[in-house]
Design goal:
Length: 382
């Protein structure tokens, strides 16, 4: 396994690091207070190509492999998680389906706009009755002439208010269960489609999640993504592919929390000496560092496997589980080390602590990841 980055990726990584530290961090508190990412930050993100990370060069993107993308995500993860999620949801589950499963006409039609950031992507699977049980979809798609007519509701859809292009899963044959689900590319201006209520969330300010409403929504037949009946399989592939990216963003946030905690422990004096010289605090920092380094190695191993075209169903589930659990443990220790300051909203540790919690839920809960791992083990040992 070789995780060495090319010179181009190393240069881009440094550019992203400078951008995150000098531009995004400067407005992190503004994002938190206004629940909005400044347009200037989005425009600068477009200029350095962040919206095109997953898209091949022939369609206007950067064509970065998974190892390179994780290196960039690790930098992005060190800032406000609302901004991180906007970028990650677009370049991950919002884009990957079209890149991996779209036909040439679909790629030419959509990917250049998505690569430039002119049009953002979103992934629409979850419904009121289909969360962890993702095959229990109620949104239907009925073929009529040269169109499919979609009816139903999606909710908790990240980037819903910002996106223009949605990868949507709907039932085309109720009798076939999971094999009766089909993927569609839906544009926000299609008749019968609209964004519903915006969710009020504990964290991830600036990243908006909302309902999607389909009321006799007309989707051209050429917007079927992949083949009819393969939507559930497509959804699982899209989610599995995105898990290395999510873990690397969690990794970046963990590293930021460690940096903040070490700095605070060196400068905070208690009982006549720095906190860092108190064994209880030093041990927490050591535990954080060990878990972060383990997560880093695991993340890049799975990313390398993705780049090699290897099957990563089990490994991606393990990584999603481990990465989100590590992030939550690191965030908890960071708050404890900072004491009262860690509980104050004026300081970033409190924000990371709240933002960490969703990582054990979205894109597959920790419990679902354990189910996936167990099912793969059963197959391996049968």
């Amino acid at each position: 396994m070789n995780f060495e980055l090319s010179e181009d990726i190393q240069l881009l990584k440094q550019n992203v690091r400078d951008f995150i530290q000098n531009e995004v961090e400067a407005v992190a508190m503004q994002i938190e207070e206004e629940n909005k990412i400044p347009q200037r930050i989005i425009d600068l993100s477009k200029e350095i190509g962040l919206f095109g990370l997953s898209i091949p060069e022939e369609y206007g993107g950067l064509g970065v492999g998974m190892v390179g993308k994780c290196a960039l995500y690790e930098e992005i993860g060190q800032t406000h998680n609302g901004y991180t999620t906007l970028i990650g949801a677009h370049t991950g589950i919002g884009t990957v389906g079209i890149v991996e499963m779209g036909n040439e006409e679909q790629k030419k039609k959509y990917l250049p706009y998505m690569a430039s950031g002119e049009k953002l992507g979103a992934f629409a699977l979850t419904e009121p009755e289909a969360g962890s049980n993702a095959s229990n979809l109620k949104t239907t798609a009925v073929k009529k002439g040269d169109k499919y007519i979609l009816n139903g509701i999606k909710h908790y859809i990240t980037n819903a208010t910002e996106a223009s292009i949605f990868t949507v899963m709907a039932v085309t044959d109720p009798e076939k269960g999971a094999k009766g689900i089909t993927s569609f590319i839906v544009e926000k201006d299609f008749p019968g489609f609209k964004v519903g209520a915006i969710e009020k969330k504990m964290g991830l300010k600036g990243s908006h999640s909302a309902e999607l409403l389909f009321e006799d929504c007309e989707v051209p037949i050429e917007n079927v993504l992949g083949k009819e009946g393969q939507g559930y399989v497509n959804a699982l592939k899209i989610l599995a592919n995105g898990r290395a990216g999510l873990a690397s963003r969690n990794l970046g946030s963990c590293q930021k929390l460690l940096d903040l905690s070490v700095s605070y422990a060196k400068n905070r004096i208690q009982f006549g000496r720095p906190l860092l010289n108190h064994q209880a605090v030093a041990h927490m920092l050591a535990e954080m560092a060990v878990e972060i380094e383990a997560l880093r190695s695991f993340t890049y191993r799975v990313a390398w496997m993705v780049d090699q075209g290897m099957k990563v169903i089990k490994e991606a589930a393990m990584l999603k589980l481990y990465g989100s659990e590590v992030y939550n443990r690191v965030a908890d220790k960071a708050v404890q080390i900072h004491g009262g300051l860690g509980y104050i909203a004026d300081y970033p540790v409190e924000r990371f602590y709240r933002d960490a919690r969703i990582t054990r839920i979205y894109e597959g809960t920790s419990e679902i990841q354990k189910n996936i791992i167990a099912s793969q083990l059963e197959k391996e040992y049968s």
